Amino acid sequence: MRPLPLAAAGGSRLDPVRELSAENLARRETRSPATVSTHRNTAAIMRDMQNAPFDQIRFREALGRFPTGVAVVTACAADGEPIGMTINSFSSVSLDPPLVLFSIARRAKSFAAWQAVSHYAVNVLAEDQEALSNRFAKAGPDRFADLAVEAGPHGLPLFRGALAVLVCEAHARYDGGDHEIFLGRVTALSTAEPAGGAPLVFFSGRYRRLAASGQAHVAPGDSLSPRGIRRSAADGESGGSAPATS
Ligand SMILES: Cc1cc2nc3c(=O)[nH]c(=O)nc-3n(C[C@H](O)[C@H](O)[C@H](O)COP(=O)(O)O)c2cc1C
Questions:
Q1: Which domain holds residue 129?
Q2: What digits encode the pLDDT tens for the residues 142-191?
Q3: Same structural domain, 178 and 87
Q4: Which of 193, 211, 182 is closest to 71 using CA atoms?
Q5: Strand (E) or helix (H) holding 216
Q6: Do 192 and 245 belong together in one domain?
Q7: Spatial CB neighbours of 40, under 8 Å, sequence gap ≥ 6
């Protein structure tokens, strides 16, 4: 049986994995009891990959196994009307310069409007903002009707009660297949107090809540910096920053 091309050729540390097949995995299981459970597991993964052709539904299911937060991006369209869309493709990119990204489906009704805006705000939703998420994910006459929003920099609509608001300058856009990737440079931000506010979570196609909602996990001896970045006692004066990416 031919090995699956799991890693690109070129002698990486993953090379041994490329030699794995369901057959020789079974042979290896007899060698070292300590590795049996891992190899059984790997063999099951290999079988799954070999038996199933690429399938859109399974792809979506697999992506859904990655839990995310939920945000609503807001902006002012060229005609001055507010636009907003629920996203969970948000990701941090760079601390210096401060960059974030999200992707928007080309088929979205507001896609062209998003391509034209110079600034946008990312409103990170709290766990009690599920209704807001639904409102900005469904077609409707006016998503902003009867909604209490603050006017932020550049006239951007900002949500009250959001865990964090990141005001961004449109920095770049990249092809992302049936989506386009929007890279924003953060020019202003606000975080809700207290720092332990609980997020709205999206996982496996459903909204979720963190089990230990409202509680920041701060180990004894650690402290929260004024910007909410955890500093460990072991980090001393100079150390202790949150990772750039999740
Ligand atoms: C939790 C959640 C996350 C979503 N994430 C995205 C996303 O990252 N990008 C995207 O294009 N659509 C995303 N959507 C779908 C859009 O919010 C939805 O299609 C919206 O109606 C598009 O607005 P428009 O067609 O009026 O422009 C998400 C929906 C939900 C419920």
A1: 68-214
A2: 999 999 899 999 999 999 999 999 999 999 999 999 999 999 999 999 99
A3: yes
A4: 182
A5: none
A6: no
A7: 29
Nearest CA to ligand 1 atom 26: 109
Distance of CA 187 from the midpoint of ligand 1 (Å):
24
Give the chain's radius of gyration (CA, Å): 22
Task: Report yes or no on whether pTM surpasses 0.85.
Answer: no
Query: Could you tell me if residue 8 is inside a domain?
Result: yes
Is 59 inside any structural domain?
no
Residue 236 sits in the same domain as residue 131: no
As for how many domains the chain has, the answer is 3
CB of 108 closer than 6 angstroms to any ligand 1 atom = yes
The answer to whether position 63 is within a domain reads: no
Q: In terms of domains, do 138 and 20 share one?
A: no
Residues in the chain: 246
What's the CA-to-centroid distance between 134 and ligand 1, angstroms? 9
Tell whether ligand 1 has an atom less than 6 A from the beta carbon of residue 85: yes
29 pLDDT tier (thresholds 50, 70, 90): very low
